[in-house]
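quick one before i forget lol
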Amino acid sequence: MARKGAKKKLSTEPSPDSAELPVDKDFLADKLSFTAKEQHEYLEAAFANSPVGDDEIVVPVSPISNPSSGITSTAYTNPFFNWRAWADENSLTKSMVVKSIAALLVTVVIGWMPLQRLFATTSAEAVTNAHVIILRAPIDGEVSAQAAHLELGKSVRAGDELLTVKNPRSDSTLVDNLKRAKQELTTTISVLKEKKRVLEVHRSELAAQKERYRTSRVEQLQKRISEIEAGIASAKAQHEVTAKALARARELYAKGTVAEALVEKAVRDESVALETTNAQLERLKATQVEFAAAQQGTFVSDGYNDTSESAQRGLEVELQLAEVKTRLAGAIDALADIDLQIDREAKRYEALTTAVILSNISGRVWDVMTAPGEHVNAGQELVRLLDCSNTTVTASVTQTVYEKLRIGQPATFKPSEGGIEAKGWIVGLSGLAAIASNDAIQPKALSGAPYHVTLRFPTLDDKEGCQVSRPGLVTFNTSNKPANYKVSDAE
């Protein structure tokens, strides 16, 4: 049944005029020599507008004849034709047509990828890279290794012990001298402490003796005062007797009973008794003054001194004790200072004698340039570590690409073995200059192009065990000028 709206029914039978004539192949090649894209569009249009049946098609007919062969064929002159009839006429099977279409599609896809790469700004060669940290010997000595952490390719953490360098010929004279000085000071301090103890005991004894003397002296003066007071009382009584005798003698002398000599003797006796009383009173006053001074610890009646011998010796002991205390305090301070010097010098000696080489990064052992038992000099390279926390990419580019690049421009890195593209930015443009660096792979090792670029890709840090020299392709974004490119922009 013909499709509704068909303009014309195509005939699959060859015309009488063209059955006996050969087909002009040049004509067919000229008609079918259009691009792959045009072929693809042509086939899609043919399938989209094909009839329900195998022999009907809704297209306008405009026959074209071949002047050289005289062939007139509607199958070749219509833009959309019955492909089954055309295939039958040319002895083509359905599988051959399908394979031809698939081959055309594959050709288009495969051809488009290098064409797209041709117009993109990419690197000629690129590899992942990382910094190499060199650990050197801080002192001269012999090497002993920590086998657990010193294997090539071994992962290490910051703080792991890698090597130990020991120098048994280090000079320890200063440490020994300080230790001897410490021993001398320790002995001096012991002597001073013992002397201080003895002086303190002697001072205590002298203080007790001084107090006993003061107490006894006060008691003695009290007794003397009592004695003087008794003498005063006796003198007063004697004075009263002489005074009465003088009065009686004068009375008798007035009567003429006694001689004048008796009166004079009575006057003398009375006068002596009075002076004796006065003397005792003055002595009492002097003794009271001495008593008051003795109560205060001052002795004013001992002739040439005002203190007791115990007190004088106590003063001497106090002076000696003060001197000992001062010397002891100085010795203790000197000992503390020597302890600090010994500690500082011991650390310095230890640093000159034994040096433990620690890993200052987390990464991998890249190279070992020594062996256990080897004598090394200060500054000699021992181990090289690969820093896995700061992965970079080194790329080589052509001059044309290099002239378009700027520091900070964004870029993407596509590993050759596949995987997710990493985003980053340009951190260095070395060009043709052979710049020495501490990278594991030097830029001069890349031979793809003469100009070199260094890029930073944070997502590559410590990825897959920090493996360097992974090849890939870098695509640069040169559409805009770089402006403070940050890590967050790459993420």
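fyi Residues 173-255 form the longest helix (83 residues).
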